[in-house]
From TrEMBL:
This is Zn-dependent exopeptidase. Residues 389-566 form the Peptidase M28 domain. Belongs to the peptidase M28 family. M28B subfamily. It holds the Pfam family Peptidase_M28. The keyword Transmembrane applies. It comes from Hesseltinella vesiculosa. It comes from the Eukaryota.
Amino acid sequence: MTLMRDAQGHHDSPIKNYASIKSTKEPVEKKNQAQRSPSLDPHKRKQRHSPTKANQRRGKSFRILPKKDPKRLSSDHRTILKLFLTLCFIFFAIFFFQRFFMLWSYHHSSIPNEVAIQLIDEIPSIPSLAESLEMHVTYRLAGSPQALAAAKQTKKLWQQSIRHVDIASTDMLLNTPRFQQVLVNGQLIRQHQAPAKDTQFPFAFHALSADGNVTGPVIFVGDGLEEDYVSLAEHGYNVTGSIALIRHQTMQGMAGHQVMLAQRHGCIGSLMFADPDLPNKQHEQHADVPSRPYPDGPWRPATEAAFASVSDLANGIHVPWSPPHVLAPTTRSSSSTDQPADSPFYASIPSIPLSWQEGQAILNLTASGQLVLGQMTNVNHYAARPIHNIVGRIPGQLDPDKFILLGCQRDAWTDAGVIDSASASATMDELVRTLGVLLKKGWRPRRTVVLASWDASDYGHLGSAGWVDEHKEWLYKNAVAHIDVGSSAGEFFQAQGSPLLQRLLHLLCQDVFDPVQGQSLFDLWKKHRVLRGQSLAVMMDPIALDNDAIPFFYQMGIPSLSLSFQSDHFGVAQSHLDNLDWMYRFGDKKLTYHRLMVKLVALLTLHLSCDPILPLYPVDYAHRLLDVTAERADLENSPWPQVVDALFHLANTSTKFDRKMTKDEDAFRIKKHFSKKLRRHAQQMNEALAQFERTFLDPMGMPGRPWYKHAMYGPSLWDPTLIEPLPSLSQPTNISDPAIEQRIAALLLTANDLLLGARKLN
């Protein structure tokens, strides 16, 4: 058999060639193909490809492919198009669901701020305030059974407005008086014997004072400050072994500092008398206020002594945990077995309060030049006593982990205690009621709102400090701001706080109007500061030691405010005469300023808990600190070059941060829908703003006073009524210490880096 060659000259297999030729001629194969395609007629359809003679000669075989039906092809195209459009619809549905529905919840889950502001202006009620004020006028000394009854009553009242309210109880080592006696040259000056039960009304005493029975010469040391002892030494007086006679300072925390200084200078005891002789200039500003003691006037009678705590707040707050109370090792700040008298925060010498009449009798003897020999006996009853903090919570909807905290004092020395502290408690009660009505109207805070009523504040802010001790980690991580709600004793508005909150407070004070004087609260604030000779350059003072903001600001670095309305003729402070009659005759007579306080704090709560970007402004902080350094010295010859250089960096960065922050605030205010980028920027900014104040915490604390961690503000070493900026550098012994300056400069640069990291500013 002859083999055929292909075009390349290769031989084809005869079997293969035969089979391919046969397949083109065999009709059976066509019949089989028709069977394989029953829908097509093999005799009528046109072949798409047909073998050519050349291909047949080459032995090539071809499969004849059927042509697709045009109608079926069109149907397939429509199916693919429908599938594509369905996928597109699903994709865009998911996109618009996230962009509109979820953003609607992000922005519109609560009633608009404008509606909430209008409700805040309408809800606070003077009759409701008066009812609450009268409810709190009861005996509620910390640790007493009556204090627990008052706490339960407040909890029940709050639960009518908010759902989550609890009483947080803990035991602390507190004292009540048992026996006091003062003899001078054999003459009985003061003697009091306490009743057998602590539940009965006590006489004036010093909280956390030491027991003792001492005898020695009595020496008048004036206000009992460091400068007074220096002056006595210059005039040849040796106070070692003497009993110090001290003029009482009404500011809380001062009594403890005065007694501690007496101990440091070698005194064996201290007698502290209340001086009612206040400057007559204050009377001239109030011609309608009689210059007579209560009840004829607002001033303290000569027979009335003043209660006080002798906890030395200039060194910090030492919480006297009772032995049964155990804290986690990471949060405990003091030994549970320490007695207050053995603590560096409390003096170990006895101290007794005196009235002006009792003090005057001793002063007359010392003025005669003769030796005045005194004997004093002070006996206390120390015991583990329960204190009760009330803590309520309004959960946040969008950022529930972050929270703002509002707190007030609840305990009091006496069965009256109106200015101290029923006024603040009534304001807080009305604030809770106002927020409860807002909740019923549809208001929902973005961040959680925590409300607290503190016990044992008169003992030295022990209730708030103890609560901070137990919640340090949570506070450090999540707290955004703290507001201390003070009393409303008159028309003089007083604000203390962090510079971060200064701008917000100024703006809101311009929106709150005093109906009595027909001016904005901001204008009245400026007017009253001028009358008192205070600066207008900085309207808000640093946080003093007479309120419960101390542990939150100075220990935890939480931006804080302390607000109050004061009277310049409140002459019955810390006495039995702090009652409702004094309030309605000489204080806030119609509770107008109580209502203003509720409105102001409610507005602060609204913005701090609901604004998309926290209304905290680091640029104000940086420029305030720069002003401080400029006041102390010319910047070119500053004694703290590293600190000044770091402050310039922080001022520059915070200015850029403020511009970007303002831009994003405008975007949230103008736009109806927010991009992911804008929300991400807001989240980054809020994290930086919430932690900004914390960057100023020095782990080593102030030199000699490590309890105070805040490096930018702190009490003066010599006079704790004065709050100094950069206190570690302001102490005379540390002005030229390069290690301290370097440490503070590093803290300022850390704050600078925090702002740089929040938004790409460099």
